[in-house]
Amino acid sequence: MKNHVLRPLWVIAGMIALVLVVRYFYVPKDFGIHERGYMYGWHREGNIGDWKKVSVKYLGSEYCKDCHPDKYESIMTTPHAIIQCENCHGPATGHPTDPPKLVIDKSRGLCLRCHALLPYPTSGRANIRGFADPESHNPGLECVSCHNPHKPSLEGLK
Amino acid sequence: MKKAQMISRRDLLKNTVKGIAGLALPLAAFEIINPRSLFADKDDKSKVRWVFLVDTYKCVGCGLCVKACKIENETPYDANVTRTWVERYVITKDGKFHADSPKGARDGFTSSKIDLGMGKTEDIRKEDIEKAFFVPKLCNQCENPPCVQVCPVGATYQAPDGVVLVDRTWCIGCGYCIMGCPYGVRFFHPKYHTAEKCNFCYHRITKGLKTACVQACPFGARQIGNIKDPADPVTKIIMTERVGILKEEYGTKPQVFYIGLDKEVR
Question: Which CATH class is domain B146-196?
Fold first, then answer.
């Protein structure tokens, strides 16, 4: 065969070789077809471990119980027992080392998530005591300035 | 009779078999979902198949799940994207249908006004409501995930326990998966610029914890379980009670089961 035919073929062969070499070094060794087959399991296996390593932020009320037994036990006797400490106090990860104090959400909006009355018959929302018009009830004041969220019954009023 | 019009016995039998095979194929394609087949699949190497159960009767629309999810999974709090969200459905007596999910219900539903977008709202009087309820949404971790099929680089995939994950180091940000998901659960992460989705808090469930949204829910509206464990309370409910799934006509076999779904829910 004449040279002018061979030359471009060599160029193409070189390009293919280059792609294969780059691919060899660039694609991680654990990339390939895994348990779920080619259609759903074609991936880098190490990524499963990467996701497992993500840090946990919400630790649950059981984490709070040992150091704050008084608060834990008192709220457990009230209807607010179903609410996790961290829903208002923020995620406890690192506490008490860092951060030493958690930032408590005392906003009206937090209480109104449940206590703004929405009369929706087939939702649990209709059964929660709430305000039909929350804006008219002491506007601008934080709910916690009168109500104690750890003792939400009216005897708990400050 | 001309020879070309004749059909030999061999051809007749061949075509009959082909015809029956052709008819049988679409019948198999019509099988939409059966949680029992996953439950019974004991030969599978994985002993775990994560599923989710949402009880819409219990949901009050407080949005504490959305808040917890955003913080736990470091989804930028003020960006209008979230891995899970809560939708409100209000159907009035005149047959009209209203639905909204302001900020994905990150701050809950604190007013009877329906968010119409562009800063407009519509108030609905209590007397006009025929039915109204809340529906939490999250990734369905489909058994046949279309988002995985369309990924051109193998950045999103299904783990052996059924959870669909995204490899942030491998995602090229083409957005095919975001378009491919019929449930709209995927979005671009504002910080990493890669596809992002709910992964059932993979870092928590693999450590024996509940997902952040399940833990944060005060009313038990959200539950996570392993459908391969017959003693799991979630498995028992899915097997013995009336549960529904979203958009089953797509054949994606979603693994988030709902109690109290309604035809208006999409």
Answer: alpha beta
A39: contact with B, CB 8 A cutoff? yes
Band (pLDDT 50/70/90 cuts) for residue B41 is: low
What's the number of domains chain A is made of?
Answer: 2
Residue at B207: amino acid letter: K
| Unique residue bearing structure tokens 């799940």 | B65
What is the reported pTM?
0.85
Nearest residue on chain B to A93, alpha-carbon basis: B72
* The listed CATH number (3.30.70.20, 3.30.830.10, 3.30.420.40, 3.90.1150.10) that belongs to domain B36-142+198-259: 3.30.70.20
Looking at residue B44, its pLDDT comes to 60
| pLDDT tens readout for residues B102-157 | 999 999 999 999 999 888 999 999 899 999 999 999 999 999 999 999 999 999 99
Same domain for A29 and A87: no
d(CA B261, CA B55): 9
Chain A residues within an 8 Å CB radius of B73? 54
Give residues 5 to 44 of B whose Cβ lies within 8 Å of A: none
Query: Which of B44, B49, B50, B60 is most worth mutating to test chain A (most A CB atoms within 10 A of its CB)?
Result: B60
Longest Cα separation, chain B: 83
| Cβ–Cβ under 8 Å, residues A69 and A52 | no
Give the C-alpha separation, B235 to B253, whole Å. 16
Which among B45, B46, B141, B203 is the top mutation candidate for probing chain A, defined by the most A β-carbons within 10 Å of its own β-carbon? B203
Q: How far is B161 from chain A (nearest CA, A)?
A: 9
Residue listed under structure tokens 């599923």: B51
